[in-house]
Amino acid sequence: MKTLELPLAKMSVREKLHALETLWEDLARNERDVKSPEWHFDALAEREKRRTAGKEKVLDWDTAKKELRRRHP
Fold first, then answer.
1. What is the DSSP string of 21-63?
2. Which of 1, 50, 66, 69 is the most exposed place for a label (fewest CB within 10 A)?
């Protein structure tokens, strides 16, 4: 595979986020081609176990975004 070089040191945070979103959108179009590593399934199983035991707090996406923005302004 050819190495992709980006001028990261010259890019603004906004430009970096745009590049990241562009890559994510492209990956999402072909999600069947993207295989999750086994540890993802293990992590999800552990989270579900904690959730059903009442040890994991579950938030809807809008609330979660607000909470993250509050913690990391």
1. HHHHHHHHHTGGG-PPPHHHHHHHHHHHHHHHTT-S----HHH
2. 1
